[in-house]
Amino acid sequence: MLGKIITSMVILSLLFVYAFSAYQNMPRSPIKMVANQYLPNKTSSINYGNVPVFGKNMRFNHNMISYSISKNCSKPRRDAMVEAFILLANRVKIISFYEVKKDADIDVDCPDTYLDLGKNMFAAGEGGPSEIINTSLFKTIEKGKIHLYDDPRCNYPVVEIHELLHVFGFAHSHDPNNIMYNVSSCNQKISKDVIALLQKLYSVQALPDAMISELNATTKGKYLNFNITIINDGLSKIKSIDLTVVVDGKSIKTINLGSIDIGYGRTIRAENIRLPSWGVSKVDFVVDKDNKVKELYKNNNFAEMVVGSNKA
Questions:
Q1: Over 60: is that where the pLDDT of 65 sits?
Q2: What is the rounded average pLDDT of the residues 237-261?
Q3: Model confidence at 49, in pLDDT bands (50, 70, 90)?
Q4: Rounded (5°) CA angle 125-130-132
Q5: Which residues 6+ apart lie within 8 Å of 4 measured at CB?
Q6: What is the pLDDT of residues 182-201, one digit of tens each?
């Protein structure tokens, strides 16, 4: 008799455990999570003052910048362009230029034709960035081009520096004495504010910057579903980086995102991530939790999601 009672109690206990486990894990209506703490990217603190530019935070992502000069450039044009590179490097100090035969950052060409602007005026040159990666922090210059239409008429490479500064993102100045004035004359010089701005821009270390740009999450009983996008908003490629899901200070899931190029992102959709318990009200999403990647900013690597009151 006693044995039957014990057996019945064991069976009832097992049934209770099974029923409780089934209740814990049974499908439920998804509950939407909302952002409680979601830190966006920082903005640049560089003050541009009155310096005219095509766009703020425009720069190459390296300080040693290559150039190539076409064989169709006459010796006077070539010499003036090389002098322009040397003079700008000497003034800015933290950037330098070197010549390559192909795949240069800046291509210099010397077409036989010139652009007639009317009123006995013509364009001595053209220049500017030709390929740009645009992120919320920087406009990274991938490629620049310079066309020189005429041999230099000044002892100082006014036209050549003018076009080179266009490549770096500087627009025309309203000051006739400024080398960026839209009509060139031999007495024009590089303004101090242009040099100061280049020094500030190129003092920023060329690092990547992982940022959580989009995040949606729901809980279903003891399970978590989420859709997250992490982009590289920095100045260099991310070689490898992790996303970690944290509940109550403990990591419940780590996903390697692999490499992310500048301006690109990774979107991860995950379903049925098991939570430690039913009724979890807060989930943290952390990029590079162990600080393995050196970045421009870390404040945009974290998002805290809490259970909302509305069903998804």
A1: yes
A2: 96
A3: confident
A4: 145
A5: none
A6: 888 899 999 999 999 999 99
- Residue 98 in tokens: 């070197």
What is the structure's pLDDT at 221?
82
DSSP states of the chain: -HHHHHHHHHHHHHHHHHHHHHHHHS----EEEEEEEE----------TT--BSSTTEE-SSSEEEEEE-TTS-HHHHHHHHHHHHHHHHHH-S-EEEE-SSS-SEEEE--S--EEEETTEEESEEEEEEEEEE-SS-EEEEEEEEEE-S---SSS-HHHHHHHHHHTTB--BS-TTBTTBSS--TT-B--HHHHHHHHHHTTS-----EEEEEEEEEEETTEEEEEEEEEE-SSS-EEEEEEEEEETTEEEEEEEEEEE-TT-EEEEEEEEEEPSSTT--EEEEEESTT--S--S-STTSEEEEEEEEEE-
With b for 16 or more beta-carbon neighbours within 10 A and e for fewer, the 153-171 pattern comes to: eeebbbbbbbbbbbbbbbe
Average pLDDT value for residue range 241-263 = 95
Backbone phi, psi, residue 80, to 5° = -65, -40
Please provide the size of the chain in residues. 312
Give the per-residue pLDDT at 312: 43
> Which residue has tokens 């950037």?
95
d(CA 295, CA 260): 13
CA dist 64 and 20 (Å) reads 65
pLDDT higher than threshold 90 for residue 90: yes
